[in-house]
Design goal:
Helix content is 78%, strand content 0%. By secondary structure, it is mostly helical. The longest helix is centred in the last third of the chain and has 41 residues, at 145-185. It starts with 5 loop residues before the first helix and ends with a helix.
Length: 217
């Protein structure tokens, strides 16, 4: 069976989108670099931030693998669509207009934990679940026991690759965005030309819900 390329492109696209969103970490890393006046601090900070985000996505992938084992794929898709819709509507009416950044000193472990909690709280893992379902494949429920186990093993490898591609795309976009802002503008431009990514994030969750509905249909 030839696996559709669409879920993989979606994982890459979501990775780039998550990397562009300042709430996922590049603004935090940039702030630390500007505070310490060292560009190297930015690059070092991005690594644990990406790792924490990857953990949140990996947990979502594990939930998808477990879900495809205990319930049918259409049911999982409808369940995902419902949760995404509810969470998207919640974020739509509870977004913040501007982040507040203050002086802080944090370690690599703090950045890792912060990134994991931030990605989880904002529903980053939930957002990619429709794509992860596509990556896992939908024919496991119709296979025999041996074929089912083999399918789960292949799905697990696909999930690992998908999470890696997603994280790589995120890290690349985060690094490029932080570098451009650091070199050309600094945090001052964010005070003059701020884009409300929280609102965009809420809309993206609703779009992901619509995609899940289409997949279920």
């Amino acid at each position: 069976m030839i696996v559709s390329i669409a879920p993989w492109l979606a994982m890459l696209g979501f990775g780039a989108f998550h990397g562009l969103n300042p709430g996922m970490g590049w603004l935090f890393a940039l702030s630390l670099g500007l505070q310490q006046q060292r560009e190297r601090v930015i690059w070092l900070s991005l690594l644990p931030i990406a790792a924490g985000h990857a953990l949140a996505i990996a947990l979502a992938a594990l939930l998808v693998l477990f879900g495809t084992k205990v319930i049918s794929v259409p049911t999982l898709q409808w369940l995902t669509a419902g949760v995404l819709l509810a969470f998207g509507l919640y974020k739509l009416f509870n977004y913040y207009r501007h982040p507040r950044w203050v002086g802080m000193k944090v370690g690599m472990g703090d950045l890792f934990l912060w990134s994991f909690l931030m990605a989880t709280a904002h529903g980053a893992g939930l957002m990619v679940v429709p794509a992860l379902i596509g990556v896992a494949g939908g024919d496991a429920g119709h296979a025999g026991h041996g074929e089912h186990a083999s399918h789960l093993g292949a799905s697990g490898l696909n999930m690992l690759l998908a999470v890696s591609l997603h994280t790589g795309a995120m890290l690349l976009v985060m690094g490029a965005t932080a570098w451009i802002v650091y070199r050309k503008f600094g945090l001052a431009i964010l005070r003059r030309h701020w884009i409300n990514f929280d609102l965009i994030w809420a809309i993206a969750l609703l779009i992901a819900a619509a995609v899940a509905v289409v997949m279920a249909l």
